[in-house]
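Record type: ASSEMBLY
Status: queued
Input:
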Amino acid sequence: GAVVSQHPSRVICKSGTSVKIECRSLDFQATTMFWYRQFPKQSLMLMATSNEGSKATYEQGVEKDKFLINHASLTLSTLTVTSAHPEDSSFYICSARGGGGGTDTQYFGPGTRLTVL
Amino acid sequence: GEDVEQSLFLSVREGDSSVINCTYTDSSSTYLYWYKQEPGAGLQLLTYIFSNMDMKQDQRLTVLLNKKDKHLSLRIADTQTGDSAIYFCAPGLGNQGGKLIFGQGTELSVKP
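Status: finished
Output:
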């Protein structure tokens, strides 16, 4: 149980295009989903907290117009990287809270590798 | 801000025990988690401990919590080559909507 999927797993795009990444909780309902960014050999940096049916809460320094988050249902959140540039290349990981194990337990997706040319 | 510190590398021989240590600053953490990340993959929940516990054992994994010193450790018994990965300590931030704060991760290398 507590499986989280992400799609796509890998994407390569040209500079200036927008990329949408989906995060789904497959076997539980997630009222809260989180989006992280991870650079090579580094820790996870929380970008935003996404609550179903409300606006996402962004961490300091994260541009909300650049990284659009939508959490339309209890099992789906999307992250859209708008007008992507090479510096947006990174590993993006989502997590979903719920599924038992404690009220704060986050279950992570497999990640999406974004490469912007 | 809140902080989590872990040593960056640990190398052990197959069959030995591994101990990964973590210190944190947030005193309001209710749950403290350990995650494992293999190359190119997401994070896999290994185990967690509730803040009013000192120890939790789950098969080969033992978590020790010293709340007074804000020190958390993960012991892996009979370490196998498949345990080679990066391990993240992640205390939950109390009263912040379920946020976790992550250390830099400890890269565990298991040599045959």
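Annotation: Residues 22 and 41 of chain A are 24 Å apart (CA to CA).
Annotation: Chain A has a mean pLDDT of 92.
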